[in-house]
Specification:
The protein is an all-alpha fold and 221 residues long. It contains nine helices and no strands.
Length: 221
């Protein structure tokens, strides 16, 4: 397929194109009609899964790895994300909460399906796409533009600061995002592989999703 060939054309295509497409679709959520924030999310989740499949042969480091460190970082970032929320100003005023119970009815099958899609998407699709962009591409590109010759464990304070900053300010919760970026990058540097960061990212997002539903803390979504 033409798109598969495009994704696998160069190392940059494989690591950047899925992220750009994913972000573009995120920007479209809610721009058509109110319900579009939900069905576009479902669309980008399905497309995201396909893109991960498409680029996998070209991104050898995109392999999930479990470790005690990944578990601790994943849980620790979740605790920090929730615990710090009221302690610092956000980048902008929060928009309308992402709450499918309001749109489709409290506890309705559609609302439950949308919530499940959000949790699965943020836990299984977002981590690989973001980690190959930030940790496999951006960090290494900041070390050397010929990033493929840079090992995942290569240490650079400049690359660490820039990558964590870009990751942090891409989120409404910028401070938690920066700490999150530093923690995931630490895992990559410590292990010399990407998989632990993908796993930690998935754990954080899964726990956050459970917290959102349990506490009704829709502002985190």
């Amino acid at each position: 397929m033409i798109l598969v060939d495009f994704f696998r054309q160069t190392p940059i295509h494989a690591r950047v194109a899925p992220f750009v497409i994913f972000v573009a679709l995120t920007a479209c959520q809610g721009q058509l009609v109110e319900s579009s924030r939900y069905w576009i999310y479902a669309l980008k989740t399905i497309l995201g899964a396909w893109m991960i499949w498409a680029v996998r042969p070209a991104v050898e480091e995109m392999k999930w790895k479990f470790s005690v460190e990944a578990l601790l970082v994943g849980v620790g970032v979740f605790v920090a994300w929730v615990g710090l929320d009221s302690l610092y100003p956000k980048l902008s005023e929060a928009g309308k909460p992402w709450n499918p119970n309001v749109e489709f009815g409290e506890g309705s099958p559609m609302a439950m399906a949308v919530i499940a899609t959000r949790i699965l998407g943020s836990s299984l699709i977002v981590p690989p796409i973001e980690e190959i962009f930030y940790r496999s591409f951006i960090y290494r590109y900041m070390v050397d533009q010929d990033f493929m010759k840079v090992g995942l464990s290569a240490k650079s304070w400049k690359a660490l600061a820039i990558t964590a900053g870009v990751f942090g300010f891409a989120h409404h919760e910028w401070l938690a995002g920066i700490l999150c970026g530093l923690a995931y990058q630490w895992l990559v540097l410590r292990k010399g592989r990407l998989g632990d960061a993908i796993t930690a990212h998935a754990i954080t997002n899964f726990l956050l999703g459970i917290w959102v539903v349990w506490k009704g803390a829709w502002n985190f979504w």
